[in-house]
Amino acid sequence: MPSPRSASLIAVVTAMTSLASLQFVSAAPAQATAVVKKSPVATAAAWDPKLSDLRRQAEKAATELEEATKALKQRQSKIRTSQKQLEGKLRALEVAEQALAKVRQPLSEVVSLIYQQPSANDFAPFLSGDSTAEALRGMGLVTHLVGGRNEVIAESNRAYSAREKLAAEAQELRADNLLSEAQLAAEVDTLRKRSDRVVKSLTQALLKMGIKVDKLGKAAFSCDPTKAASANEFPNGLIPKAYLCPLQQPGHTLRADAAIAFISMNEAYKKQFGTQICVTDAYRDLAEQQSVYYRRPGFAAVPGRSNHGLGLALDLCGGVQNFRSPQFNWIEANGKKYGWFHPDWAYTNPFEPWHWEYDPKLTAAR
């Protein structure tokens, strides 16, 4: 029959698992339905806020999942540490018990011999009632031996009591650790499912908008904003294609979070001007950076130092490249809502009204 604490552990794990399943089942259809029911005609008006909201949800879910995973790892580390301490105490008790056994054995043998053969040794007069000096000495020795034996037994009993107490504490500690770990693991599992659900809805939205990402069961890695930081692991201009999200403008890619923010802005722009934003350059690999640097001296960053090589910059056309045109003014006024801004240097030196950059902190603050 399981102990009360074991029953509690089972109940908590069952409850957390049920809660995770309910959250997954209840929330997923609503978002999936919202994605499926949108018609192409309503895309420009509807997807703009929806996509931005999904991106923020995905990034928030990823942050919460990361924090919960760290907490779980810390808890598991503490469990391992306490387990080592416990094992050390148990080993110390075992050594103490072995030492007590060595002391107790000869005393037990001597006292046992005295009582088993009273007539065959120097203590016979004492045991037969004689009160000679020899008997008194024998009585003292016996008293000493018996006292020593009792002391050893008492010390042994204390050691056993301490061991039983430690064993009970160990059992309690193990149960608490397992319960805490199970709760954290269930929380991590719930957060992971929520993160996967949001990213899946985001991928479905991108597919409806014509973004060519994979249609497998899992969300496309290249357009998953929770994986955007993975692109930072590669040198400027050497980011693999699998880590870059395609745009609606054919042939252009950006880092996932920047791409999703731009796609969202592009939808709002289409609603305003009736056409999507014109893009001449997005991510540039190192070879492209070198080519632009030599073809346009003074108008391109040193190869390997360009924000284009990080997948965080765009060069725009279609009117945006003309300073103070309606298209330029619209993006200047609305771009920061999506994380896109015109850097200060591009207003003057060198003057590049077509150049825009992405900063995730801008959207995080909104």
Automatic annotation (TrEMBL):
<feature type="coiled-coil region">
    <location>
        <begin position="51"/>
        <end position="85"/>
    </location>
</feature>
<keyword id="KW-0378">Hydrolase</keyword>
<protein>
    <submittedName>
        <fullName>D-alanyl-D-alanine carboxypeptidase</fullName>
    </submittedName>
</protein>
<keyword id="KW-0732">Signal</keyword>
<feature type="signal peptide">
    <location>
        <begin position="1"/>
        <end position="32"/>
    </location>
</feature>
<dbReference type="Pfam" id="PF02557">
    <property type="entry name" value="VanY"/>
</dbReference>
<dbReference type="GO" id="GO:0004180">
    <property type="term" value="F:carboxypeptidase activity"/>
</dbReference>
<keyword id="KW-0645">Protease</keyword>
<feature type="domain" description="D-alanyl-D-alanine carboxypeptidase-like core">
    <location>
        <begin position="252"/>
        <end position="360"/>
    </location>
</feature>
<dbReference type="InterPro" id="IPR052179">
    <property type="entry name" value="DD-CPase-like"/>
</dbReference>
<keyword id="KW-0121">Carboxypeptidase</keyword>
<dbReference type="InterPro" id="IPR009045">
    <property type="entry name" value="Zn_M74/Hedgehog-like"/>
</dbReference>
<dbReference type="GO" id="GO:0006508">
    <property type="term" value="P:proteolysis"/>
</dbReference>
<dbReference type="InterPro" id="IPR003709">
    <property type="entry name" value="VanY-like_core_dom"/>
</dbReference>
<keyword id="KW-0175">Coiled coil</keyword>
